[in-house]
Write a structure and sequence with these properties.
Elements: E1 3-10, H1 14-25, E2 31-34, E3 52-58, E4 64-69, E5 84-89, H2 93-104, E6 108-115, E7 121-126, E8 132-137
Parallel strand pairs: 1-4, 5-8
Antiparallel strand pairs: 1-5, 2-3, 3-4, 6-7, 7-8
């Protein structure tokens, strides 16, 4: 069974926002990756190295609140409409492909569905109705 989570985009203040959210929800981060720690960190402008590539914490039963900093020099311009995505965590690779192929039909694929450096299969797109989606299937997740 798939889980749908919220993925937020910020313009350089993800860490500040998530420290605030964490204080309200009373939870701890389950993931925190800075751009300097990801692949291609050597190509990131120095002022963005400590910005957040991915951050997450649990909210409720099996749900996560996740986010990233958008980097303008990488062509990521934050504006109303691209400041969030729906992130689906499918229960199988077959289900992941079904969701990715079905929901992206007629839309714009931003990241093809493929195995990524963190070990999961991931893809990202905007559907034909303008909604941003992320599909992340980790075969090693429990």
């Amino acid at each position: 069974m798939a889980i749908v989570n919220s993925y937020l985009n910020f313009s350089g203040n993800t860490e500040e926002a998530f420290n605030f959210y964490k204080s309200v929800f009373g939870t701890e981060f389950s993931a925190l990756v800075r751009f300097k720690d990801g692949p291609g960190g050597d190509r990131i402008p120095a002022e963005y190295l400590d910005k957040i590539m991915h951050i997450a914490f649990p909210v409720g039963n099996g749900n996560l609140l996740m986010a990233t900093d958008m980097i303008e020099s990488m062509g990521q311009i934050l504006k109303t409409g691209n400041n969030f995505s729906l992130s689906i965590t499918p229960g199988s690779e077959e289900e992941a492909l079904k969701f990715f192929n079905g929901l992206s039909e007629g839309g714009t694929i931003e990241a093809p569905f493929k195995k990524e450096f963190w070990g999961a299969y991931f893809g990202m797109f905007v559907d034909k109705f303008g909604i941003r989606w992320m599909i992340n299937y980790d075969p090693n997740a429990k």
